[in-house]
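Co-fold these.
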Amino acid sequence: MTPVLEVKNLKASVEGLPILKGVDLTVYAGELHAIMGPNGSGKSTLASVLAGREEYEVNGGTVLYQGEDLLEMEVDERAREGLFMAFQYPVELPGVSMMNFLKQAVNSVREHRGQKPLGAAALLRMAKEKAALINLDSRLKKRSVNEGFSGGEKKRNEIFQLAMLDPRLAILDETDSGLDIDALRSVADGVNVLRTDDRAFVVITHYQRLLNHIVPDYVHVMYDGRIVLSGNKELALQLEARGYDWVSQEAVPA
Amino acid sequence: MNTDTQYLHEVAASDYEHGWVTEVVSDTIPKGLSEDIIRLIASKKQDPDWMLENRLRAFRYWQKLEAADQRPNWAHLSIPAIDFQNISYYSAPGSKPKYESLEEVDPEILRTFERLGIPLQEQKLLAGVAVDAVIDSVSVATSFKEELSQLGIIFCSFTEAIEKHPELVQKYMGSVVPYTDNFYAALNAAVFSDGSFCYIPPGVRCPMELSTYFRINEAGTGQFERTLIVADKGSYVSYLEGCTAPRRDDNQLHAAVVEIIAHEDAEVKYSTIQNWYPGDSGGTGGVFNFVTKRGICLEDRAKISWTQLETGSSITWKYPSVILKGDNTKGEFYSVAFTKGRQQADTGTKMLHLGRNTSSTIISKGISAGRSSNSYRGLVRINRKADNARNFSQCDSMLLGDRCGAHTFPYLETSNPTAQVEHEATTSKVGEDQIFYCKQRGISEQDAIKLIVSGFCQEILAKLPMEFAVEARKLLAIELEGSVG
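Predicted complex below.
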């Protein structure tokens, strides 16, 4: 089986400063991988490079997405191919209604998949279903994209878009940051509903607490631009107990 | 950091859709401006004596301003020296100074308007919109006159109004924008050749949108039209103006005057979609749009609302204003000005509060692309006797790219301590992060920019009458797309 994502020896820098120093990661459909690590270890950079942010320069390595060279694809092409990123800081689009935004997004993806575009009524119906599925306040979708949303609403809106766009690979970039425990649980519930056999998740988080609610198949620890430890969900608990200092010692080459 | 740069350059260089020319024989008078020319225009128009006198008075005043070098130069605009002797001040297509019916109109002219999306045959018209079509110096057709006249509404060309309703024209013309108002208002009063006239009788709610479509066709001519709208007590009218011109290498002058009079309890909503030829991306050609638009809320509880979408013209100098004379009157100004290439716009409004409990709202959205310059200039004046006046102003600018400019010049003059005045201003760039966010959802860069810009203008476009809001959105999309017309 072709992995959904196959990252090999990925190196990337921002403004000449190396951040990723050789990342390896293989993710198959149906799996949920958590990537943990201290601040500055390169977790969010990995997400940004996968999504295609231009500020990041790739200096080496390869990324195959469903067997194709991901790094050759434009940002919007990646998205239409089914790569979704839930933003750490979702962006506000003043005056752009959620439904108008979703219509363009959903229909670009559908068109790419050779499906017919959805009309307004069908889209509304779909939005209603998906909002119910992840327990989203349906009033949110009547507002402008993220404008005036609270932190929790913004994060939930990301999961709502995930549900609408039906991606193959969802990358959650510190989706738990800035959330109180109730909001965290609600976002996690949304993600759990959306875990399916044909979809893979890469969940980037600083804290173990999210993984109490979203149970990962694999846990990886990043340190100084590399994945230095991999294991199952027990690893997250170990990290919680022992802190990241322990990892830094482990990571020193013997 | 330059994901949008290339596309924005394309936007800035995008082409003009209505740049073609109608091949039609025209009666164009020689270039130049003199008393003889004024008399020639008056005789072409078969003006009554009082109108000729008006013209000559205005012309002499204009000559004084011109001799004293009183061309307005305070705007944030770089205006090349205009040679007023090198313009033809009158051009009539098809050698007819006026038309009694559509059958008389050259089919080529009808096709012109059809191609512009303004079919003049009533059965083809948008339901609920009456149109006065003005090409160069002449009104060629006015639709739905019959239906409107049954309600006592007068909607006709200015020429016809002078002939058939001289008492109304004499009473109101120049009462809001006198010829002494400014340089271009004086010029217009001297040489204007046609335009639209509209009178709504007391208590009548005009059942359809009234609309004037202006087209400049001939080369080397200027267009100088007047619009006069009188809303009598308790009446209501919604008015729309649209404009286009062919692509030409020399600049063409458009100096119009619009006057609105709203009596007690009357309401006038005036919407403009201005799409004159903007010149090419290097700044060659384009229309100089020097327009004076002003309304007066003459009596209590009157309301005047200006909504404009400005996308055309190489230079725009325009400040649709409201004099709030009656008590409890309201003035509104909603504007979207989009500039690209080498376009320059200096536009805004004046809200002059004279009466008590008067209120005004100003919302201006400027979008600049390419190497264009886009300025908002607005005056809010609260006079001594205007107790409890209120104003809210909001001016937002959006920059597309880093070679354009956005400026805001708000002026506030308050002579009454009870006034409440609020002003908010923002400047933003279409953020890399906004575009990236859209693209990450599968939306192309072009569509992302369109989405973000139309979101930015949304609250203004929502003020336009429905049919025109659709047209306005399309126009903005075309402007942003860079498609060839």
